[in-house]
Every structure is written in structure tokens, then in C-alpha cells.
Write a structure and sequence with these properties.
The chain is 57% helix and 6% strand.
Length: 126
């Protein structure tokens, strides 16, 4: 992997990077991800951080680990979505969640401004 971030990444960031790589087809079905020990050394993180990232990918249904052999991109059964399709779907969901979160934040700000304006006005019903 040629990715070398400026600061040591979190497990969440590592998992996101691999989700994106799988979605782009960098790691095809049956393809092996980099070894956890070597990747940890390359990224300047602990082995547990990489293992946690790989666990997240496995929970997402993108990869599976083979004891003593490595971590591989799932090769789906006929009719099941590929890991690439699943990763694309997860990325789309993440984009949608970011958009909704932004909209909620804007709505929250508008409500606070309206409440502040209302509290500054004398009650018109008195």
C-alpha cells in the first residue's frame, strides 16, 4: 500500500481507506489485503489498530480473515453483492449521513436563532 498519512491513522480511518480501495476495485474479490503487522509498521500504528480496522471491514461484510494466512476480500456467492458493491453502498450511506447531519446542524442553528429572537421580543399577547 502506498498510503502514508502525515500522522498515524485511527482504526476507523484505516477501515475507511480500505473501504474506498475495495469500492474502486483496487482489491478485487478474493484479493488479499496487506499483512496486519507490515501495515501497522508502515503506518506507524499498533498491530491492534490494524486488526481493529480489519475487524470493522469484516463486520461490514467486505473481508474475511483466514487464520495464519491473511485477510481477503469476500468473493460473493451467486446473487449476493460483491464487496465492491457493498463498499460503494456503504460509502453512499456515509455521504448521505454526512449530508443529513449537516442539514440537522443548520436546522438546529435556525431554531436557536428563532428562539433567541422570540425571547428578545415582548409577548404580543399580553
Amino acid at each position: 500500500m502506498d498510503w502514508k498519512p502525515e500522522k498515524p491513522p485511527t482504526a476507523k480511518e484505516i477501515a475507511a481507506k480500505f473501504r474506498d480501495s475495495i469500492a474502486r476495485g483496487v482489491y478485487p474479490p478474493g484479493g488479499q489485503l496487506p499483512g496486519a503487522k507490515g501495515l501497522a509498521k508502515h503506518l506507524g500504528v499498533g498491530l491492534m489498530t490494524v486488526q481493529s480496522a480489519y475487524k470493522q471491514l469484516a463486520e461490514d461484510g467486505l473481508v474475511f480473515g483466514r487464520q495464519g494466512s491473511g485477510t481477503y476480500v469476500l468473493d460473493p456467492k451467486k446473487g449476493d453483492p460483491t464487496a465492491q458493491q457493498t463498499a460503494l453502498g456503504l460509502r453512499e450511506l456515509q455521504d448521505q449521513l454526512t449530508h443529513v447531519t449537516s442539514q440537522l446542524s443548520e436546522l438546529h442553528d435556525r431554531i436557536e436563532r428563532l428562539e433567541a429572537e422570540r425571547s428578545r421580543r415582548p409577548d404580543e399577547n399580553q
